[in-house]
Amino acid sequence: MPPSAQPTPFPLAFPPVEGALFALDEATLLRGIEGSRHSPRKRIILPLHRTQDAAVQRMLNFLQPGTYAAPHMHPQPGAVENVIVLRGAIDFFRFDAGGKVLDRIPLKEGGAGMIDMEPGVWHTFTAVVPDTVILEVKRGPYRADLDKVFAPWAPLEGAPEAGAWMADLLRTPPVRESSVGV
């Protein structure tokens, strides 16, 4: 079973929203933030897509500092991804195939707070301030066995060395070795 499909003793996500229209309100933000504060993962997702087979996967991801999402890439053709910071701030990391940091990009709400990436980009991110909320948009449908490939040079989520690995990564100064943007 792939690591992303292994059962966990805590919820990874809230149930998806229902109905033809969803409007983000303060109560939903507070519920998600509270969920991330109590999650051992220090994050929790609220799916905005109504079903896993939706052509566009949209989700709010509520994050706390110290959360660890194992570096990964989305290998499927057309597997583009957008990350938009709605509240708080994250550091976004892009890597080469061997694990070298190519970019560390600080993203924050209210300005330069968006990443758009093509398939095959090795990446991760982490919250740098409490109660961060991001919107992720990816091509669907979601299939756990095809969605992502985890980096062989980084620990998986839950591994004992994951916290130290992320702490080392956060000591990397902001860098852009490649052309980012226009």
Describe the protein's topology.
Blueprint: H1 26-38, E1 43-47, E2 56-63, E3 72-73, E4 81-87, E5 89-95, E6 101-108, E7 114-117, E8 122-127, E9 132-139, H2 144-147, E10 149-150, H3 162-170, E11 175-176
Antiparallel strand pairs: 1-2, 2-9, 3-10, 4-7, 4-9, 5-6, 5-8, 6-11
Characterization of this structure:
- A five-stranded antiparallel beta sheet has the order 1-2-9-4-7. Strands 8-5-6-11 form a four-stranded antiparallel beta sheet, with no helix packed on it. Strands 3-10 form a two-stranded antiparallel sheet.
- It has a single domain (10-175), classed as Sandwich (Jelly Rolls), CATH 2.60.120.
- By secondary structure, the chain is of the alpha+beta class.
- It is globular and about 45 Å long.
- It has helices at residues 26-38, 144-147, 162-170; strands at residues 43-47, 56-63, 72-73, 81-87, 89-95, 101-108, 114-117, 122-127, 132-139, 149-150, 175-176.
Number of helical segments with 4 or more residues: 3
CATH topology label: Jelly Rolls
Spatial order of the strands forming the largest sheet: 1-2-9-4-7
SSE topology string? HEEEEEEEEEHEHE
Mean pLDDT: 90
For the record, what CATH class applies?
Mainly Beta
The global form is globular
* Named CATH architecture: Sandwich
Largest sheet: 5 strands, antiparallel
Q: What helical percentage do the residues reach?
A: 10-25%
User: Runs with pLDDT <50, length 5+?
Assistant: 1-6
CATH superfamily: Jelly Rolls
Q: Tally of extended strands?
A: 11
Please tell me the total number of domains: 1
Structural class: alpha+beta
**Which band does the percent of strand residues land in?**
25-35%
Measured distance between first and last alpha carbons: 41 Å
Radius of gyration: 16 Å
